[in-house]
Design goal:
Number of domains: 3
Number of strands: 5
Number of helices: 20
Largest sheet: 5 strands, parallel
Shape: globular
Helix content: 55-70%
């Protein structure tokens, strides 16, 4: 079984993620791996596992007799990945046969699979994940597909929580910004840059030209709102019709880099595929290039660059981090600079803006003028003495937590403190200790 697993992981061309658990690993290599593994169990049962698996994929894709183009493309891509000629011919012939069969029923095929194939939890989990992935690939995971996948859990005798796990993995959440760009504190040059980009796209659309969103570099110190702005930008592009889904995928190095040769390509490809139609936000992206010649981070970069080129209009990639480190990162691969031709610099907050942020996050609390002055003086000190560790809004949050901790330790000394006591929401000058 181990040899089959390795073969499948290396030859399959699916978009799953080889993660630590069984489910993620088995679907990681896609249909190629699935057929390799099922064929291992098919030695004594005339390929029934493989045949029924192919039937279930086609039946799910043909719900309501509407064979979605992306679903068909996905299945055919994975069939073509099969290196064993005999397996390829078997799977492709069954694919054509099922495609031309009327009234194909995925539930009935699953029942037949359950009755004829020996129970193997790992086999059934990767079949279920592949079907779930296929149902979501057309951006329209409707109620009928949801009900079928819930019923399949019972037929294949799998844990009910697998549905929720697959939902989190394959159903993207739309971007719902809590703030508009104009509502953000500070960031005046960032707002101007974003508005310039949006205005250019609107005019290009009015001219009848092809508006392209492009890919972006967000550079600056931490705590300057890069992630928030990325979400807002994604929502704007969705409104303009440049993104089909408008969802937001945020990742760091550990989400892309694997633990062994070949693992990184699988993990990175799944993240990239999952981001299609939305925003892929890679924070501290330069950590992919700082591990030396043998580090797997470069493998992720080498997977990202051509994928961007091949899918230039299908999603938006934003890479973010410190300014100097970002410049060094762009020099690591000749294709990076040409792909990311829009750079937005995020300036540090002033002490006045930091206090404005503080008033926003402490809207449920009260404090007098003297207390407010002490807080302002603290932010002024942070601004005047800032270094490479300056945290901007993160320092504001730390300040709030420190004051609240001091307030709690003061309040706990009051024997008459009670629920809904107004003193619970008052900061005093004595709480400002740094």
């Amino acid at each position: 079984m181990t040899n089959v697993l390795k073969k499948g992981l290396l030859t399959g061309l699916g978009i799953g993620l080889a993660v630590g658990d069984t489910v993620g690993a088995v679907v990681g290599a896609g249909l190629g791996y699935a057929v390799d593994k099922l064929s291992d169990n098919d030695v004594n049962n005339n390929n029934i596992s493989t045949i029924l698996f192919v039937g279930m994929t086609v039946a799910l894709a043909k719900i309501d007799d509407n064979f979605d183009e992306r679903e068909e493309e996905k299945i055919l891509e994975d069939i073509k990945a099969l290196e064993d000629r005999a397996l390829y011919e078997l799977v492709y012939s069954k694919y054509i046969e099922y495609k031309n069969t009327d009234n194909l029923n995925v539930i009935e095929l699953a029942k037949e699979y359950d009755s004829k194939v020996t129970y193997d939890k790992e086999d059934r989990e990767f079949i279920y994940e592949y079907l779930f992935q296929l149902a979501c690939i057309d951006d329209n995971f409707d109620e009928k597909e949801q009900n079928i996948l819930k019923e399949l859990l019972q037929i294949l005798r799998l844990n009910e929580d697998l549905y929720n796990k697959m939902s989190k993995k394959y159903i993207p959440e739309p971007i719902v910004p809590t703030q508009s760009l104009e509502e953000l504190i500070g960031l005046n040059s960032v707002k101007q840059n974003i508005n310039d980009i949006i205005n250019a796209i609107k005019i290009e659309k009015l001219r009848g030209g092809k508006a392209i969103a492009g890919h972006y570099i967000f550079q600056g110190n931490p705590g300057t709102g890069k992630t928030t702005v990325a979400r807002i930008l994604g929502a704007k592009f969705k409104e303009l019709g440049l993104l089909s889904k408008g969802h937001f995928v945020e990742v760091k190095r550990e989400d892309l880099v694997g633990e062994y040769i070949g693992h990184t390509a699988i993990k990175t490809k799944e993240i990239l595929e999952k981001s299609l139609g939305g925003i892929l936000f890679i924070d501290e992206v330069y950590t992919l290039s700082t591990g030396g010649e043998t580090d797997f981070g470069k493998e992720a970069i080498n997977a990202i660059v051509p994928f961007i080129e091949d899918n230039r209009d299908k999603f938006i990639v934003i890479i973010a981090g410190y300014t100097n480190e970002m410049n060094d990162f762009l020099d690591t691969n000749p294709g990076l600079k040409s792909r990311f031709n829009n750079t937005i610099n995020f300036e540090d907050y002033t002490s006045e803006e930091m206090f404005e942020i503080f008033t926003l996050i402490t809207k449920d609390f009260k404090y007098d003028t003297q207390t407010a002055e002490k807080i302002k003086n603290h932010f002024k000190y942070l601004e005047d003495t800032k270094d490479q560790n300056f945290g901007n809004a993160r320092d504001v949050r730390k300040t709030f937590e420190a004051i609240k901790k001091n307030q709690i330790n003061r309040l706990i000394q009051y024997p008459d403190i009670k629920e809904q006591d107004e003193r619970l929401y008052i900061f005093e000058e004595a709480d400002i200790q740094f």
